[in-house]
């Protein structure tokens, strides 16, 4: 059978291409141009070559921020993905409670990111926040504005609260798409709950979990608003993630060249990890 | 840090007028290379279709487009590693990148 060729489709794709060009490709090209130049404003540029790349790649400040970023992303992925799957497995598949659970799960996702940061900022305050005051009352010396460990604890807790629901909803969508016949066959074979999970539910959720891991990885690697409102990168620099450091260099110090070089390295790291995740998780599907 | 001049011709790194994207001939040529590479892939595919994905030394299924992506991404990290461990100029890693392209398109 001959393939249908319809050139009209290009017209339908064109608006998206134009949109992507202006919100992704043009800014990316500009960043590449900035990364090899120096500017003092007024749209006047001087060639700097690869100096900013060498500076950023060898700066302990960048290494520390990258280390903190990898730790943050690794931790939240290790918590959110299993927790999301467990919650999705515990949710009802039929009946009136389905809608209630879905609405409850969707709620954290509907709150604007800066509001989430502000909420947790107040929630964690040791003198008047519910979380901070309660932890201090039961004997913990908790103060996220002064102690780096407490700041990290609050930051991770906030992200888990905000984003686990996304994993839950995706995993749940994967679970409800499994036909009953699979479960009936498993029951006839006398399969245990673990066997059902391992050989039916998990393989069927693989695709949505790939999407969940990729989305959470990219989002958490780009996270800015919530930690900016919650800790502002402090105490000291203890929670200064890559994006916070980037904004400090670009807008705080107005070092556009180094900031552009750092953005490109940052972008390449995200691209590499995303590609590795995607390749590893989809490997074997074509076999 | 001393200035490293990759090209002695100054026009290569001068701004192309007062443009809002801060173009220079050097950065423009980089994007022209990427566009040409993608176009060449299209032309190659049109005249000699690459067929189904194949499995190479990395044990992953790749099409020609995937191999271009892996080549470009790998090249970026070869340059980054060189800048981190040794520094500019990038003529030597340019050679490594050429070998990397050949390796990826042949064996991956």
Would you kindly provide a brief summary of this structure?
The complex is a heterodimer of chains A (287) and B (108). Chain A is mostly helical and 287 residues long.
Task: Please give the largest β-sheet of chain B.
Answer: 2 strands, antiparallel
| Order of strands, widest sheet of chain A | 1-2
Number of domains of chain A: 1
How would you name the CATH homologous superfamily of chain A? MetI-like
The coarse overall form of chain A would be globular
Oligomer: heterodimer
Helix percent band of chain B: 55-70%
Task: Report strand % of chain B.
Answer: under 5%
Low-confidence parts of chain A: none
Radius of gyration of chain A: 23 Å
Average pLDDT metric of chain A: 90
Order of helices and strands of chain B: HEEHH
Fraction of residues in H or I helices of chain A:
over 70%
Number of helices of chain B: 3
- Which structural class is indicated by helix and strand composition of chain B? mainly alpha
């Amino acid at each position: 059978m001959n393939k249908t060729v319809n050139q009209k489709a290009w017209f339908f794709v064109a608006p998206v291409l134009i949109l992507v060009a202006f919100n992704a490709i043009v800014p990316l090209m500009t960043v590449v141009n900035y990364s090899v130049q120096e500017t003092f404003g007024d749209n006047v540029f001087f060639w700097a070559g690869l100096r900013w790349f060498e500076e950023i790649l060898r700066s302990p400040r960048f290494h520390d921020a990258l280390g903190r970023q990898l730790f943050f992303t690794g931790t939240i992925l290790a918590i959110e993905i299993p927790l999301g799957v467990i919650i999705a497995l515990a949710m009802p598949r039929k009946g009136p409670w389905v809608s209630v659970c879905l609405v409850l799960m969707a709620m954290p996702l509907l709150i604007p990111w800066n509001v989430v940061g502000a909420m947790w900022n107040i929630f964690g305050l040791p003198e008047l926040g519910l979380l901070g005051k309660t932890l201090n009352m039961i004997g913990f010396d908790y103060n996220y504005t002064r102690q780096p460990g407490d700041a990290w604890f609050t930051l991770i807790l906030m992200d888990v609260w905000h984003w686990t629901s996304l994993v839950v909803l995706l995993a749940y969508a994967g679970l409800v798409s499994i036909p009953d016949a699979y479960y009936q066959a498993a029951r006839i074979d006398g399969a245990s709950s673990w066997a059902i999970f391992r050989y039916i539910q998990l393989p069927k959720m693989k695709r949505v979990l790939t999407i969940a891991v990729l989305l959470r990885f990219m989002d958490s690697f780009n996270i800015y608003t919530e930690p900016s409102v919650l800790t502002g990168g402090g105490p000291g620099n203890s929670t200064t993630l890559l994006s916070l450091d980037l904004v400090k260099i670009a807008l705080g110090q107005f070092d556009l060249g180094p900031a552009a070089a750092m953005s490109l390295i940052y972008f390449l790291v995200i691209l590499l990890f995303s590609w590795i995740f995607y390749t590893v998780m989809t490997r074997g599907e074509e076999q | 840090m001393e200035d490293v001049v990759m090209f002695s011709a100054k026009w290569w790194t001068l701004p192309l007028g007062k443009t809002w994207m801060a173009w220079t001939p050097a950065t423009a040529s980089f994007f022209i290379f990427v566009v040409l590479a993608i176009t060449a892939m299209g032309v190659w595919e049109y005249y000699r279709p690459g067929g189904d994905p194949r499995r190479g030394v990395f044990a992953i299924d790749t099409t020609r487009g995937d191999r271009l992506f892996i080549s470009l991404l790998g090249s970026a990290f070869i340059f980054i590693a060189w800048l981190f461990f040794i520094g500019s100029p990038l003529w030597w890693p340019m050679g490594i990148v050429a070998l990397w392209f050949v390796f990826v398109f042949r064996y991956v």
